[in-house]
Amino acid sequence: MRHHLVALAGLTVGLLTPVLSVPAYAAGETCNGQAATLVGTNWVATMYNTGTEAVTNVMEGTTITANFAEDGQLNGSAGCNNFMSSYTLDGQNITIQPPATTRKACSEPAGIMEQEAAFVSMLPQATTYTISGSNLELRTAEGALIASFVAAQ
What we know:
Blueprint: E1 2-8, E2 11-17, E3 42-49, E4 54-57, E5 65-68, E6 73-77, E7 82-90, E8 93-96, E9 100-101, H1 112-122, E10 128-132, E11 135-139, E12 145-151
Parallel strand pairs: 2-4
Antiparallel strand pairs: 1-2, 3-4, 3-5, 3-12, 5-6, 6-7, 7-8, 7-9, 10-11, 11-12
């Protein structure tokens, strides 16, 4: 597996190859030809902020998801455990409350619990979201990437 480092806005971003294989869609489309929306889309993370000023790919063999419900509830899988939270929107601004998680301990793949802890602890730092085609990005007020997602098929 090759490891690439990319500098984005002063952050070192580690990219592991291979990356999650995601089909390409026309701008504004998901797999069913509809525009992706924050609410009602099953979002699958491709990258997350490690909390150490670095962004990296989600580990191979793990899946992080996020589902934003119309009633302001946010839930998904953090890789090992499920998480649940609430959120509010004001235009493109988002406020996510600190998530609660189930309490399973997963030993494989190595590092899964560290990945999960970083993802869950960074979520409440998101202040903006953008959707471009079938991609969702959550960012801090300073523009640092919290997580990048793709709409699931």
